[in-house]
Amino acid sequence: MVFPAKKKPKQGGLGDRQGAILSRLKGQILSGALPPGTLLPSRRALAARHRTTVTTIQKALGRLQRMGFVQSRGWAGSTVAEHPPHLFHYGLLLPDAPTGRDQWYWSRFLTGLAAVVHQRGCLSPRRFTVYSNLLDWDHSDDARQLEADLSDRRLAGLILAGDPGGPARALLRQADKAGIRAVAVGRIDVLDHLPTVELDQQLLMDAALNCLRKKNCLRASMVLFNRLPGVYEAAAEKQLRKTGMSVGPTTFAAFDPRFPSWVRSWTSRVFSQPRRQRPDGLFVQDDNLLPPVTEALAELKLRPGRDLVLVAHANYPGALDAPAGTLQVGWDLGHAIAEAVEMLARTSGDSATPNIQLPLVWRNGDVHE
After folding, report:
1. Any idea what DSSP says for residue 304?
2. Pick from 145, 345, 355, 368: CA 20 to 30 A from residue 56's CA?
């Protein structure tokens, strides 16, 4: 049987021409040849210039409008958008969904960042899109959207909170070649070349221990996140010994936030001891670990500020569900996002951008330098 030969698609048809016109106009917008607010030539003038139909021009402009690069002024024509996406649209990349499989680890930090960028008027006129669940790349709708937005150059920069995984890292390298830069909030070991807004854990622990010392604590304990590198615990032990506070079997305890019952059990055992034997100060280094700690203290009828000094990490501006008397210390995530955006504005492919160390913020009026 002889099959008829397939017809080759015509080159230079309306679809090809429309795409070529779109690419040319978008290229002029991206390069700055057509800056924001510029009035574009009329549709008839563009049709004559590109030797095509007004309908084709209309379709190309319509696509540019949907992408955010062009604004229609009705009979007055079309202009380049005042705040086009390649200058005002930022992506916040989260490795997991804020309530995903690692929610005990990520929930407060990731949801705090997402809440900041979703606030109305956050760094207006800049806009933010949150791309989450990137570790599950093959099943993430946000991953597909990120690919499309990067391909269409609809992003001014990327802000990363945690390692987004191999496929996303490969995409970041392509984006960097296209001039779309990335920065990190918090150190990411596998992406340590990125300019970073540092949330210095050593600074946090030093400040907390300094606070406990000023509150005349002699037997301090620390509840730590179990993925925290051991170097921080070693530094804390050195500082405790230097200031004369005791170091013993209950000084340090590290937990996986996914298992709050373990945290609750440890707290109950340690703080059920007689007053002169139990810790008189406690630092909770990760806010995900605080709820089981405070639950156990409440069951023992121990109150922060009266029976012990309790210092807890917090991510601002989110509310920390802590009992009265808790001294809260941490970082303002709104400030972190603002610094990240400013860092992106200063980042260029030819020069290194220095990291920024975000200052600590104390709540309840207690500030301990």
Report:
1. B
2. 145
For residue 348, being part of any structural domain is answered with no
Domain count along the chain: 3
E strands, the chain, where? 70-72, 78-80, 89-93, 127-131, 157-160, 182-185, 196-198, 220-225, 252-255, 281-284, 309-316, 327-332, 356-357, 361-363
pLDDT of residue 351: 61
Sequence-separated (6 or more) residues with CB below 8 Å from residue 131: 91, 92, 93, 94, 142, 143, 145, 146
Residue with the larger pLDDT of the pair 99 and 206: 206
The pTM for the full model equals 0.88
The enclosing domain of 137 has a CATH number of 3.40.50.2300
pLDDT at residue 342 greater than cutoff 50: yes
Is residue 40 within 8 Å of residue 70, measured between CB atoms?
A: yes
Q: Which of 194, 219, 241 is the last residue of a domain?
A: 194
Q: Are residues 301 and 205 in the same domain?
A: yes
Is residue 318 a contact partner of residue 113, using CB atoms and an 8 Å limit?
A: no
Buried b (16+ CB within 10 A) or exposed e, 259-295: ebeebbebbbebbeeeeeebbbbbbbbbbbbbbbbbe
Joined together, the tokens standing for residue 251 give: 């000084």
pLDDT tens digits, one per residue of 92-137: 999 887 665 555 445 688 888 998 998 877 899 999 999 998 988 9
Is the peptide bond between 317 and the residue preceding it cis, with omega within 30 degrees of 0? yes
| Spatial contact of 315 and 331, defined as CB atoms under 8 Å apart | yes
**Cα 219 from Cα 88, distance rounded (Å):** 51
